[in-house]
Write a structure and sequence with these properties.
Pfam families: DJ-1_PfpI, HTH_18. This is AraC family transcriptional regulator with amidase-like domain. It comes from Albidovulum denitrificans. Keywords: DNA-binding, Transcription, Transcription regulation. The chain is α/β, with parallel strands linked by helices. It has two domains: about 15-195, Class I glutamine amidotransferase (GATase) domain (Rossmann fold, 3-Layer(aba) Sandwich), CATH 3.40.50; about 215-325, Orthogonal Bundle (Arc Repressor Mutant, subunit A), CATH 1.10.10. Helices cover about 45% and strands about 15% of the residues. The protein has 15 helices and ten strands. The chain has helices at about 25-45, 90-95, 95-105, 120-125, 140-145, 170-185, 185-195, 215-220, 220-235, 240-245, 250-260, 265-285, 290-295, 300-315, 315-325; strands spanning about 15-20, 50-55, 60, 70-75, 80-85, 110-115, 135, 150-155, 160, 165. It has an eight-stranded mixed sheet, sandwiched between helices. The chain has a two-stranded parallel sheet with strand order 7-8. A hairpin with a 2-residue loop joins β9 (about 160) and β10. The longest helix is centred in the last third of the chain and has 19 residues, at about 265-285. It is globular, with a radius of gyration of 21 Å.
Length: about 325
């Protein structure tokens, strides 16, 4: 059950939304926040959402897709119900004391605030999420939890905690928006909006974020989905392939045939690549030592890790770290 939110309740009135677009925002995340509003208005045949784009100083804001979006200057006294902070990269650079102070001043004047993709960082840095539950993009979960111990960081797709909403990325934002439409104007309209995007809204808020779309895989082949889920859960202490197969009621040979048929690789290769991809993410997005990363991804020896990493990525872990800045999304 979600903590009560004044926004997620039946209400015939249009919802006024200010979308705060930060520089280098992911276009997909922005679209996931805005396009459901457009589709809801169109399918309902009336204005259910009234939104505008704002930024700290107004004017064009660059997106990661390579173009800009025009914005208004964010006012000190908005006439909006909801402020959505949509962000992607350069978070710490853009989280200026002036912006954080403005968010704190705006919070009491709004019915709700939402952080989309990198947006939860801004709400957290402003001190608005202390004592609350929140989520953030799965790549940032560990760093976020360590930085904000007073926040109950969850791996959920999206979290509603009182007046504050946080989502883990673009697809979870779309799920959250469909939930908002369902709560305010009914399940039929939410399904028609989902249908406009040829999207099947089968994810719940508390569904854990995953690096791989395991839920979709599971619908196509439940056994394969179960095997991948066990691999994702066992990155730090990897079970043997035979153990994974037995755990889902298959022989090792049958599991190998399943992976070869569906994914074109053996389960052992798939599992190793999954662990190495996680190691690469930890190298670029955290300040963990190479030795700690090796242990966190299930390698008992650093030499074994080094060989596997070089074979997959064509360079050593240390060389990769030298070419990137840790905590890249920030």
């Amino acid at each position: 059950m979600k903590p009560e939110s004044p926004l997620f309740a039946a209400d015939p009135r249009p919802l006024r939304v200010a979308v705060l677009v930060m520089g280098d925002t992911n276009l997909f995340s922005l679209a996931a926040a805005v396009d459901p509003m457009r589709a809801a208005n169109r399918r309902a045949g009336r204005e259910l959402f009234d939104w505008r784009y704002v930024s700290t100083s107004g004017g064009p804001v660059p997106l990661t897709a390579g173009f800009t979006i025009p914005t208004e200057r964010m006012p000190e006294k908005p006439g909006d119900d909801l402020l959505m902070v949509v962000a992607g990269f350069r978070i710490m650079e853009q989280a200026t004391p002036a912006l954080l102070a403005r968010l704190r001043r705006l919070a009491p004047q709004l019915r709700g605030m939402a952080g989309i993709d990198g947006g939860p960082w801004f709400l957290a840095l402003a001190g608005l999420l202390e004592g609350r539950a929140a989520t953030v993009h799965w790549e940032d979960l560990e760093t976020f939890a360590a930085r904000f111990p007073a926040i109950e960081t969850r791996a959920d797709r999206y979290v509603i905690s009182g007046r504050y909403i946080t989502t883990g990325g673009a697809a979870p934002c779309l799920d959250m928006m469909l939930d908002l439409i369902r709560a305010r104007w009914g399940a039929e309209l939410a399904l028609r909006v989902a249908g406009a995007f040829v999207y099947e809204p089968f994810q719940t808020a508390a569904q854990p974020q995953q690096a791989l779309p395991a839920a979709r895989i599971a619908r196509a082949d439940p056994a394969l989905g179960q095997a991948i889920a066990r691999m994702e859960q066992g990155v730090e202490d990897p079970p043997a392939i035979a153990e994974i197969a037995a755990g889902i009621g298959l022989s090792q040979r049958r599991l190998e045939m399943l992976f070869a048929d569906r994914l074109g690789v053996s389960p052992g290769r798939f599992f190793l690549d999954l662990r190495l991809d996680e190691a690469r993410r930890l190298l670029t997005d955290t300040r963990m030592s190479v030795q700690e990363i090796a242990l966190r991804t299930g390698f008992s020896g650093q030499a074994t890790f080094a060989r596997a990493f070089r074979a997959r990525f064509g360079m050593t872990a240390s060389a990769l770290r030298r070419t990137t800045r840790p905590v890249a999304r920030q």
